[in-house]
Write a structure and sequence with these properties.
Blueprint lengths: L3 H9 L3 H6 L5 E3 L2 E4 L11 E4 L4 E4 L5 E3 H9 L3 H12 L7 H7 L3 H19 L2 H13 L4 H7 L2 E3 L5 H8 L4 H6 L3 E3 L6 E3 L4 E7 L5 E7 L8 E3 L15 H4 L7 E4 L2 H9 L5 E3 L7 H10 L2 E5 L4 H16 L3 E4 L8 H8 L1 H9 L3 E2 H12 L5 H16 L4 H15 L3 H32 L13 H16 L1 H8 L13 H15 L14 H15 L6 H19 L4 H14 L1
Parallel strand pairs: 12-13, 12-14, 14-15
Antiparallel strand pairs: 1-2, 2-3, 3-4, 4-5, 6-9, 7-8, 9-10, 10-11, 15-16
Helix pairs in contact: 3-4, 15-16, 17-18, 18-19, 18-20, 21-22, 21-23, 21-24, 21-25
């Protein structure tokens, strides 16, 4: 869809280390770079960037590819949008192509413009006394001054079923664009468009580049739902964004404050705590945790003090801890949330009495356990001790475990040696269970079970391995591609066993026929997950010393032999059926 020379220029101007370094902290590892994978939670780095080949691969989750694939995954873009993203970054102009735009779907830049125009409409509605008077009064009651309202671009959606739709249609936006952007919907009964957001205070959600990507709307009374948030759109994924990160990212090097809602964040920013963010109407996700880990090493959880808030805090502690963040929890006394506390006691008190007194993960969980059990009763004390021992057994550092053993011993009045013995017993069982699970995992992976990228792999492991060997050499060496293109070796699509292998072969050969082959050009035809498998094929083959013509031809013969066996009447399944029938007849 985009000329290969333009793609090459985009890639050459976007060094993969420079691009990935803006998302991941990379450290030198020989001739390559390593860091914590941004696509799955890990504490030990398994994500490798290959500086020589300008590729990356995670040996933990299998993510891999080139700089284009990385942007596709980390920014959740399609292939063309990823190229446009990198082109803009490097100052490369991509020739306009109407057919390309029609194929790739909605224009991201136009979606950003549409959201910005909607935000302007909401803002104008707020300051129109006849329309937004009630909303302005509500914001004043909540203690928000004009500067704060302006800073966050707060607006108001009129109590009208079509006010926004009519305004946006007059600006030239199509019905399809408005529906895709979650600004309006279509009535199933009448077939007409209606505004999603009505009679709500509106909060624009802005990404770190300053683009309006979505909206959150809050009612001004006790009606439900209290908040209405944009669903996922072509430019917005709620699981991968945080409210106010566009402001907080410049003030959060020491720590981030994680809140539950928009108003808590805005109240904290207004009080001078500009390192506050919030999730977007959902529980925290691993993707959001990994985003936070790019900007800070410490997160203070500031959730409501009710049961739901405490449950959400427990979940957040686990998810944030998995990405290596230092997690602490705020205990807000005499108020249900930061907004109410600051209004009652002021910003200084919040800083000195709440932030400074934040509790670590273990202390927070220990308080929760002790609150549930009356340790004056022997049975309850034993239950509390068992829960706390299980918690300590999850801690990797033996020094940390000793500190917490002492704390539990003091709280429960139980000798440290007894507590330590129980923890060691739990650790031994966990170690045995882990070894068993890892063994089973290796067996399943070797057999190809649960392979979402190539589900045919498990049907004939030998054939699948042979075709990956052939494809790995074709991807790596131009002389092997040339021999196939010139017909010097007999190899075609029908020789491949899995559907995925057939797709890789046909796309690879078609791309190679057009001139200079480059693995990144396959991104047009494959998902980022499939690109990761293609990268694995290359890596597996590159680690072998013999990749010459003899090895290539032998791999082709093995592939044809195994594929023919699978297609023959004497396939494994048929042989098993024959044996079964013979046993039944004897």
């Amino acid at each position: 869809m985009i000329d290969s020379q333009v793609i090459e220029e985009i890639k050459s101007r976007n060094d993969i280390v420079d691009v990935i370094s803006s998302y991941v902290v990379l450290k030198r590892a020989g001739s390559n770079m390593q860091g914590l994978c941004p696509f799955h939670s890990e504490k030990s780095p398994s994500f490798t960037v290959f500086t020589g080949t300008q590729g990356y691969y995670c040996f933990g989750c299998g993510a891999g590819g080139d700089v284009i694939t990385f942007v596709r995954q980390v920014e959740n873009l399609d292939y063309v949008s990823s190229l446009e993203f990198l082109a803009k970054r490097a100052g490369v102009t991509i020739p306009e192509d109407k057919g390309r735009r029609e194929k790739s779907g909605f224009d991201r830049n136009r979606m950003f413009e549409m959201n910005r125009d909607a935000a302007r409409f909401f803002r104008e509605s707020l300051f129109n006394e006849q329309i937004g008077g009630e909303a302005l009064s509500y914001l004043k009651r909540r203690g928000l001054d004009a500067a704060t309202v302006k800073r966050f671009g707060i607006g108001y959606s009129p109590n009208d079923f079509s006010a926004l739709t009519k305004h946006m249609r007059a600006l030239g936006y199509s019905e399809e664009e408005l529906i895709a952007g979650f600004l309006c919907g279509r009535s199933q009964k009448y077939g007409t468009l209606f505004d999603y957001f009505r009679n709500r205070v509106m909060f624009p959600i802005i990404d770190v580049s300053g683009n309006v990507i979505a909206f959150g709307g809050r009612v001004m009374d006790d009606s439900q739902p209290k908040y209405l948030n944009s669903s996922d759109t072509p430019v917005f994924k709620k699981s991968r964004n945080l409210f106010a990160l566009n402001f907080a990212r410049v003030a959060c090097s020491e720590e981030l404050i994680l809140c539950e809602g928009y108003m808590d964040v805005i109240a904290l920013h207004a009080a001078g705590f500009t390192n506050a963010v919030a999730t977007l109407g959902t529980a925290i996700t691993p993707e959001q945790a990994r985003i936070m880990s790019r900007y800070t090493k410490k997160v203070l959880i500031s959730y409501d003090s009710d049961a739901a808030g405490q449950k959400a805090a427990n979940r957040a502690i686990g998810i944030l801890g998995e990405v290596g963040l230092d997690v602490r929890v705020l205990k807000i006394k005499d108020a249900k949330d930061p907004d109410e506390y600051i209004k009652k006691f002021g910003a200084d008190s919040f800083s000195n009495d709440i932030l400074a007194a934040s509790r670590g993960k273990f202390e927070y969980n220990m308080d929760s356990v002790l609150a549930r059990h009356n340790i004056l009763i022997p049975d309850e004390k034993i239950k509390a001790c068992n829960e706390l021992c299980a918690m300590i057994s999850d801690i990797y550092s033996s020094a940390e475990r000793e500190v917490y053993i002492s704390a539990v011993s003091d709280k429960l009045g139980i000798p440290k040696d007894s507590i330590r013995a129980d923890i060691n017993r739990i650790l031994k069982k966990k170690k045995n269970d882990f070894k068993k699970q890892e063994s089973q995992k290796i067996i399943r992976q070797s057999a190809g079970f649960g392979d979402r990228v190539n589900p045919d792999y498990a049907k004939n492991i030998a054939a699948a391995k042979a075709e990956e060997s052939v494809l790995g050499m074709l991807l790596l060496y131009p002389e092997h591609r040339k021999s196939v293109l010139e017909g010097k070796c007999e190899l075609n699509e029908k020789d491949f066993f899995t559907e995925f292998g057939k797709r890789v072969f046909t796309s690879l050969i078609a791309t190679a026929q057009n001139g200079n082959f480059e693995t990144g050009l396959l991104g047009e035809f494959f998902t980022p997950e499939e690109q990761g498998r293609i990268m694995r094929m290359q890596l597996s083959r590159s680690q072998l010393s013999d990749n010459g013509a003899d090895a290539f031809n032998e791999s082709i013969r093995a592939l044809k032999r195994e594929t023919a066996f699978s297609d023959s009447e004497d396939s494994v399944d048929n042989i098993l059926d024959i044996i079964k029938n013979k046993r039944n007849n004897t």
